[in-house]
Amino acid sequence: MEGSPSIELRGVDKEYRRAEFVVPVLSDLDLTVAEGEFLALMGPSGSGKSTLLNLVAGLDTATRGEVIVHGRNLGTLSEAEITRWRADNVGFIFQTYNLIPVLTAFENVELPLLLTKLSRKRRRENVKTALRIVGLEGREHHTPRQLSGGQEQRVAIARAIVTDPYLLVADEPTGDLDRATAGEILELLEQLNREFQKTIVMVTHDPLAARRANRVLHLDKGRLVDDVTDETSISAAS
Amino acid sequence: MKYFTYILRNARRNPVRTGLTIASTGICLFLMMILLSFFAMSAEVSSASRIFNRIVTMNANGFAGMLPVARVRQIAAMDGVLAATPFQWYGGKYHDEVMPFAQFGVDADVVFDILDEFTIPADQLADFKADRKGTVIGRKLAQDRNIKVGDSLPLKGDIYPVDLDLVVRGIYDGPNNRDLRMCLFHYEYLDESLKQTTMGAGSGGSLATEASRISGNAGSIFIKCQSADAMVELCRRIDDEYRSTEFPTRTQTEEAFGQMFEEMMGDLKNTVYWIGAAVVVSLLFVAGNAMAMSMRERTSEVAVLKAIGFNKSLVLFLVLSEAVLVAGLGGAIGALGCKFLCDYVDVARFSGGFLPFFYVPWNTALLGLGVSLFVGFASGLIPAVLAANSSVIDGLRKVV
């Protein structure tokens, strides 16, 4: 599977309008990400990396150009269609985990499955599998408040993979974690990429996190300034 | 149903706020039920009296007008009439009580044939008929004042210039939505007492003048008809019979008679409805504010839900369901709680004699529940629409 295009951006511009001002964020961006690739997006604040992540995740639309993910041109989809597409194809991992505090770990992971037609029994099986993959067996009934930061992020990862999407987007997934816990989370992402062939796009400021990826893109002022793929270069660049 | 856990957990997210919203909805609806039930109950009881085939005759000018007691016999003899009894309000005071309970001078021989929804043991009825000073009282009146058969029941005249020394000969019972707080005694005893006052005080005294004026007045006449079909015709015949006399009559069905008391309250009914509407509006503000606060705190959570694939209509449904659940719980506690409380606790006894009975009709309780669901829906609508249309990017901005 690895090698065929999973994400293609062709001449993508993104601008935001703030009152009478037009703020360009991404300019004429071309990018191809192969299926099964683990891509790290790096760059200073305001460089457009989160905007790029939002575009490939279907959370935002390009002002100009095409964003094609797994053969679907996201710009042609209606709001309802793109919402459905996200549910089927994208798993989200956020810096602050963004779990629903009133739900248990099990219920948080089950949320995306509520949108499917799976039976309750099947949902339960899938949630247990996802929690086992992230190493949280036995913590199903804990609420986020009863979990550590690392465990919360594991629940968030379980929520992201429970529907078996082919694309995982992670925005600073280790930003709120200590070094050791961050290492465990990155290990888990590597495992998902390696063993389950998930395409991962990760925004990070952390060079150590970027080293886990097999490709690192550097953005600055909305433009792609560096694209590193070999391991030695990644270590040097990040 | 698969979203119920999510809805329930969110409703319980801030127990104090949710509890206060439920409590305010519940208390407002409880009070609204009391107000609305007063009218709904009167209407229901009036319409329920249809099955008893009774009509009521009174003076055409109202209760203050004279209705000669001789007409009871005349009416009872008419075709289509099974029985007739005078029903003369006495309004005496029992011991130091300020508010009199219902006391009526009746024809002991037929009153329970006419008010046949009431039951009384045969021996007690026989004792009542045999004792001119005897009285029969309702079960609730007996319970309220701990009165037993054989006890004396002295009543001090307030409207009437005579006192009555009654002896309880029986206790009647009946359905809970009928007046079980009446005191029925022999009309003859009242009338004879009035005549004695007239004679004893001489012809020139004011007491004697008043007693003479009231004596022989039946007050109103309750008539049991042979069939429902005969009722309208009988009303017309009775009124035609006395149209050209000194005391013309107004005869109507018991249902219409009951409604007449409602009409006496004038615009109070509309006033109560307006108060109810104001309560609903204020509830909307309370519930709406609570829901809006709750949703403001969950901006990023809504964004996450939308990011992982919850569409607009589902978000709308979840927020509205939560609002309806909270307000509906308040409604269930307030409206249905009021209904069951009034069913199991005799709240009329706390009305100081103003109400013979009180209950919340089912249609009123369900109206209250419906109002609470409407309040939930309306109060949740704006927060729900805002949440459904909120931007995922803006919602995630705090964390992205």
What can you tell me about this protein's structure?
The complex is a heterodimer of chains A (238) and B (400). Chain A is an alpha/beta fold. Chain A has helices at residues 49-56, 79-89, 105-110, 120-133, 149-161, 179-196, 207-210, 231-237, and strands at 5-18, 21-34, 38-42, 64-69, 72-73, 90-93, 167-171, 199-203, 215-220, 223-228. In chain A, the strands form 2 sheets. In chain A, strands 6-7-8-3-9-10 form a 6-stranded mixed β-sheet. In chain A, strands 2-1-4-5 form a 4-stranded antiparallel β-sheet, with helices on one face. By secondary structure, chain B is of the alpha+beta class. Chain B has 2 domains: 4-45 and 267-396, no CATH class; 49-264, no CATH class. Chain B is 55% helix and 14% strand. Chain B is built from 15 helices and 11 strands. A 7-stranded mixed β-sheet of chain B has the order 3-5-9-6-8-7-4. In chain B, a hairpin with a 7-residue loop joins strand 7 (152-156) and strand 8. In chain B, helix 2 crosses helix 10 (254-264), helix 2 packs across helix 13 (312-344) and helix 13 (312-344) packs antiparallel against helix 14. Chain B starts with a helix and ends with a helix. Chain A binds chain B through residues 50, 54, 57, 59-60, 79-80, 83-84, 86-88, 92, 94-96, 98, 100-103, 107, 111-112, 114-115, 120, 159, 171, and chain B through 2-3, 5-6, 9-10, 12-13, 300-301, 304-312, 314, 392-393, 396, 398-400.
